[in-house]
Amino acid sequence: MLIVSSRSALLSVYYPQIFLILTSGSYLALSSVVALGANIICNKIPGLAPRQRALCQSRPDAIIVIGEGAQQGINECQYQFRYGRWNCSALGERTVFGQELRVGSREAAFTYSITAAGVAHSVTAACSQGNLSQCGCDREKQGYHDQEEGWKWGGCSANIKYGVEFSRRFVDAREIKKNARRLMNLHNNEAGRKILEEHMKLECKCHGVSGSCTTKTCWITLPKFREIGYILKERYSEAVQVEPVRASRLRQPSFLRLKEARGYQKPTDTDLVYLERSPNYCEEDMATGSTGTRGRLCNYTSPHTDGCNLMCCGRGHNTHQYTRVWQCNCKFQWCCFVKCNTCSEKSEVFTCK
Ligand SMILES: *[C@@H]1O[C@H](CO)[C@@H](O)[C@H](O)[C@H]1NC(C)=O
Ligand SMILES: *[C@@H]1O[C@H](CO)[C@@H](O)[C@H](O)[C@H]1NC(C)=O
Ligand SMILES: *[C@@H]1O[C@H](CO)[C@@H](O)[C@H](O)[C@H]1NC(C)=O
After folding, report:
1. What does the pLDDT average to over 187-201?
2. What is the pLDDT of residue 98?
3. Which GO terms describe its molecular function (predicted)?
């Protein structure tokens, strides 16, 4: 058996049990994973909801891309919240694979929206690059002229509809309990995907002698995921609190309405929604998904949330001194080497008590 090395690390993140197989010395390639039988792989991924397992079995090639997409979402979450008390840590890597968060906070809302968007983004990119067997570029408008703008559709338009639909089928399938959090999670998943869809870009190329642009072809491309990260972060800060509404005699909540509004005002499609107020994330509390800030790096001079005052929640900080050494004043000597001095500087880092 053989494993594609660049992907084995990823597999190890997502599928700890597969990693055990790998570290015992055998290697397993993606292609042979497929050949080996999706059954084996899909049964080894912990925490898959039944419909996710079924989708894994019918599309084992896509499961890798889904994993990469979810990781992309989590990486972006960690980047966006790198200066926050909550740094995206407790919500874990396996949030798309069944395991549900037991909290209905704003932070959970962000996590769901960014992983759903991450999966849609990765699947769409994989389609464009020909990495998935059942999709490719979106050829729907190929060859048509845009009369008003005077250009022609060409190139490889990103098949965002496919990516979004795939994310919907896989990511949403983990919501099996019929409760208010399901409605919240599904709403936030959809909001993340919708925001991605709304930020697709048009890219064009001119044809003609020396860029004269006598004809122009255009296609749709994916935005950088970083851009989606910033937009979702903004949505996070404007997230709205909702409460479930039960339709008459049915026990199960059937939709969400804004909590502090009169009547039955619903959130908009791209609002992030939450059910419960967030903890302050100062102390460790697994029930709320808080890891606390003990041991976190803080910035002594910053007035923001990364400043020691706010980050350490008034507990104070430890100071660690160290000497930073680097090469400096480098001069080119004839011929041919570079001569440098060694510079050093005393420096300090601070961590929360
Ligand atoms: C497509 O496959 C190539 C080769 O395996 C890989 O380098 C690339 O990252 C993949 N692209 C996506 C979007 O998954
Ligand atoms: C988040 O904070 C915890 C401690 O509170 C730390 O262990 C972890 O490494 C941090 N994660 C990131 C991605 O910075
Ligand atoms: C600490 O915060 C100050 C003020 O916001 C900023 O200028 C400085 O670059 C920060 N230092 C580090 C190490 O991030």
Report:
1. 97
2. 47
3. cytokine activity; frizzled binding
Give Dmax (Cα) for the chain.
89
- Cis ω before 135 (30° cut-off from 0): no
Instruction: Give the CA angle between residues 19, 23, 24 to the nearest 5°.
Output: 120
pLDDT in tens, 228-283: 999 999 999 999 999 998 877 767 888 899 998 777 899 999 999 999 998 889 99
Residue 293 CB–ligand 2 contact under 6 Å: yes
CA-based nearest residue to 203, from 255, 146, 154 = 154
- Say if residue 321 is exposed, middle or buried (CB neighbours under 10 Å; 0-12, 13-18, 19+): exposed
CB 114 near ligand 1, within 6 Å: no
Q: Is the CB of 309 under 6 A from ligand 3?
A: no
Residues 6 or more apart whose Cβ sits within 8 Å of residue 62: 55, 123, 126, 132, 166, 170
Residues, the chain, total?
353
For the CA of 300, the nearest atom of ligand 3: 1
- Give the pair of three-digit tokens for residue 236: 């996070």
Amino acid letter, residue 245: V
pLDDT of residue 5: 33
**Does the CB atom of residue 65 touch ligand 1 within 6 A?**
yes
Rounded CA separation 10/19 (Å): 9
CA distance 67 to 78: 16
